[in-house]
Model the fold of this input.
Amino acid sequence: MIRHGVKTAMLIGLAGALPMDLRAQSPGSTGPAELFLPGLVSTGDYELNAAFSPDGNTLLFTKSAFGHWWMTVFETERDGGRWKEPRVASFSGRYSDADAIYHPDGSSVFFISDRPTDPADETTDFNIWRVAVTPAGFGAPAPLPEPVLGPGAEYFPSLTREGVLYFSAARRGSDWGFDLYRARPTATGYAEPELLPETVNGPESEIDVVVDPDERFLVFVAYGRDDGLGSGDIYVSHNSNAGWRKAVNLGPAVNSAAREYAPGLSADGELLYFTSERPARRKGDANLDAREWKALMHGPGNGAGDVYRVRLSDLAAFEEP
Done:
């Protein structure tokens, strides 16, 4: 399970013993992606997600037990140019929670949880929840209503400025994996979710979608595609007058032979954040002494999820079409 009570200073000390290319550059890829806040966000624990408040001064991310049987949302604030030690978000810690993201107007946070939706709820699948952001902190969580709340699990909510909700769910029967959906807001909740077109959804599984607040593009994770580099790759689809264009793999600047997933955008929309399980070492690398081995096993690059970031302007798939 998640290691509680590990001091940030200790984690930073372990990260400082790692090779410089691990602290700065993204091992296992050929691009400009860099490890995000090693020792603070990217540690020896399993981290995923990165979601910023509209002003960029609050960050939500997830720590997970291996196997994702229990996930917890953490938060940290920027103070004088430095990020504070992360703490468990007030709405998390009791159930398995993840995939937190701010509404673009900052009024609320959406996240997934396996907590019961009502006293009679005996299911254990994930649903999308919403919690208000107030001057006093986070309010009480509430599940999104039907038809977003469906018979199976829903994952990774993301919203446009107009409140259009994007998410992933398994709703096409046992022959299909997860697909990406869009639900438009109504006066009482949301309209029936629309399956995104085949330019985005393929024959295997698509999950973890983040949409640009102005709906210019969406970034998501796909599995089992012919142009994939690993077990899960991140793709982008640009919007046009004709609809969503054919999705493009972001390539080795982001993806590796390991799994990449859980994309997110910076508050200014200039940076892409993502989680990678890429290791810092490969079989056959130089011998490690005991101190180096301990630093590797208890720091980022140990094969658990770490958070990376890259500028969209450094990715060919984001050049003007």
Q: What stands out?
A: Residues 1-30 have pLDDT under 50 and may be disordered. The first strand starts at residue 34 and ends at 35.
